[in-house]
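We include this case.
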Amino acid sequence: MVNYRYLGSSGLKVSEITYGNWITHGSQVENDTATRCVHAALDAGITTFDTADTYANTAAEQVLGDALKGQRRESLEIFTKVYFPTGPGGPNDTGLSRKHIMESVNGSLRRLGTDYVDLYQAHRFDTETPLDETMQAFADIVRQGKALYIGVSEWTADQLRAGQELAKGLGFRIVSNQPQYSMLWRVIEPEVVPTSSELGISQIVWSPVAQGVLTGKYLPGQPVPIGSRATDTNGGAQFIKGWLRDDVLDRVQALRPVADELGLSLAQLAVAWVLQNPNVSAALIGASRPEQVAENVKASGVEIPVELRNRIDEILGDAVERHAGKTAEGAPASRLS
């Protein structure tokens, strides 16, 4: 079963393996399969579920809400996000303006079939809206009881600091950040993690298996498996292609003895690795089959000895991306970019 951790400096506990439905629900898998995956997560002790209004242009929220029907609401932690375009993509269908936030939270609640979300997250930083406008809108949502906590995603250290200062003045706190983080992508370690620790913010990390590369199923010198994420033109392929280099894939295969020593699969090793970081509250996992959920949950509670973590570092070497500036480089330059 899954262990639990506090979210930032709050009193909210979340399952350290959190179920996310970014690419799968509403686009990659049929709704009945998505429902079976959600139920497998519940059976494994996962109580925390993460989605966003932009996933499959709102369809993912609807699928998740339907899959959770009949569950005791108080026993769940439901997260969603706002920023990216939804609907027909009009000028106010994106960003973190007061208008878009207020309209979006109501739409998310309706699709999820709930009166409130446990965590409402700014999916990216909005360079076109004054930060105080965004923070005031979040404060009002908290006061209205539509969200219990506020988080962000892929914010830089400076953005986190500015946002937290405004939030505290408005009577709430940012409790979480949702960045990409894995054995191969460690750009949050130099700046975001230390700043977050200081501010009482923890990480809910996405892509802990580097879009599937760290599962070991992609082999050097071999074509990508049919039906894998690397062949999914609806979203998966564009995110994974940067890792599909033989020098990276060779190093991933070299991790097998480490995984074997711990009695883990490569995927379980990858998820367990991100959970060794004390600033990480949860690792987001997705699934296209219920069995994948049960396998990933086995990473919960695993402790990787320091000597094995050092060996992982040696094996991966310069295949690891560590440059702190990558967070800002990956951010949208404008709402529509």
In short: DSSP finds 13 helices and ten strands in the chain.
